[in-house]
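Section 3.1: Structural characterization of target chains.
Under the original work plan, the team committed to producing a structural model for every single-chain target entering the pipeline before any wet-lab resources were allocated. The record below documents one such target. The sequence was received from the expression subgroup and is listed exactly as submitted; it comprises 245 residues.
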Amino acid sequence: MLTISRLAATAGVTVRTVRHYHHVGLLPEPERDASGYRRYSAQAVVDLIRIRTLADAGVPLARIDALLHAQPAEFAATVTDIDAELQRKIDQLTEYRRRITDLDSGERLVLPPEVVAILDRMRGLGVGERRVRLERDAWILMQALDPHVMPQRIRDKNAGLDDPETLRLYLACDQSVDWDPDDPRLDQLIDDLDAWEIKHEQDDSRPGYVKLVSCRISEASPAWQRIVDALAHRAKRRLAAGHDS
């Protein structure tokens, strides 16, 4: 025979929980013995474990009482229903975990797989996470404001990453993020980028979101601010020279 504390410990609950089950009528409370203690039988342990298991599974206490007095077939059918409900909750939580994992990177929630693959490819090539996040924001803006150009931009981006010279300049820009704006290495990088733009005949009538992205790039690094400003100044000067000629 067990005391209430031993009963609670055996079933893995607290004494307070046992007394609550007494109070709501789930577990019969034995009479006190001659020494003034309530003594519990092995059957009480079994009943308490069944109550605890059902309660932990989310079964309301009012329903547990009926189950404890149900016929074996009825009890088995109810347990099957409870198991199905638990599996539904497990599946739901699994989906929540997947979505939370997606939130960690952000892009998978809002961008197509082809763009996510580009961002992952950039990481694999050694591009820093700061630049990858800026790239992600550019794609999000493009998808929201100019979605019809997405397929061509995806092809262009992959082609650029395939091109050794374009990739070299891209990585050089990424590495310059923490350079001092007066670092002499920026002079050569600006010259190289300007030559690349001239070679590839960049269109000056770019969509509005490109200006937003340029602002964000500039804000991210003083060195990048100098690069953006210098390239914009050179492009403007070439345009004016073209009009004068």
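The two ends are 107 Å apart (CA to CA).
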